[in-house]
Amino acid sequence: MLQGVNLACVRGDRELFKDINFSLDAGSLLQVRGPNGSGKTSLLRMLCGLSYPAAGEILWNGTSIRSLDGDYFADVTYIGHLSGTKDDLTVLENLRISSALAGFEISANQASEALKHMGLKGREALPVKVLSQGQRRRVALARLLVCNTTLWILDEPLVALDVMAVKLIQGLLEQHLQRGGVIVMTTHQEIEVTAASIMQLHLA
Ligand SMILES: Nc1ncnc2c1ncn2[C@@H]1O[C@H](COP(=O)(O)OP(=O)(O)OP(=O)(O)O)[C@@H](O)[C@H]1O
């Protein structure tokens, strides 16, 4: 499904990585690891099509993502390390608007259900600015419950989450993989996810 072929990344005058290769089939998870500044976020942004590799090619089902454009974006959910929530909008509005921007219009009821699942029942009408960091992260991650995409690209999804929320997200990741989804994620911590294939990519 997703292949990286001889990928290289240059930022400013630094080459962050080169000759990165991987191939992910349905049900596979790639965990990208490496020290701060090694290029994990840069790689994820490339895989989303938000930036171009300095060399190499990213293929989705055998076709370069450069030539797929909108068709590729419709298959991808990206949740960055900054949650991307809007402070002055309510929790409910944040989820509905971020979903709509990603191409999934959801009703207020669907959003409420997803937020309840994420442990945010009763907070739907609060502006996001009054939430804790972990609660903001939950709002961002609630998108995983309402999207219908094959490829999830997640930058540090577990940061700021408590033990229960980490378990919840790990459960969601597992379900996605069991359904034949593909996940690329960065995390500095160990993850407990059972999958047909879990690969690690270490950036230096
Ligand atoms: N547009 C840019 N111009 C110059 N340097 C950049 C640019 N974008 C990123 N960098 C640099 O590239 C390096 C890698 O950044 P990146 O965010 O990919 O690292 P990371 O591995 O995700 O780090 P962390 O673990 O701290 O999140 C950093 O030194 C960063 O400052």
Automatic annotation (TrEMBL):
Keywords, ordered alphabetically: ATP-binding, Cell membrane, Cytochrome c-type biogenesis, Membrane, Nucleotide-binding, Translocase, Transport
Domain spans labelled ABC transporter: 2-203
Pfam families to which the protein is assigned, alphabetical: ABC_tran
Membrane-spanning parts: none
Gene3D superfamilies: P-loop containing nucleotide triphosphate hydrolases (3.40.50.300)
Gene Ontology biological-process annotations: cytochrome complex assembly
InterPro entries named in the record: AAA+_ATPase (IPR003593), ABC_transporter-like_ATP-bd (IPR003439), ABC_transporter-like_CS (IPR017871), ABC_transptr_haem_export_CcmA (IPR005895), P-loop_NTPase (IPR027417)
GO molecular function, one term: ATP hydrolysis activity
NCBIfam families: ccmA, PRK13538.1
Descriptive protein name: Heme exporter protein A
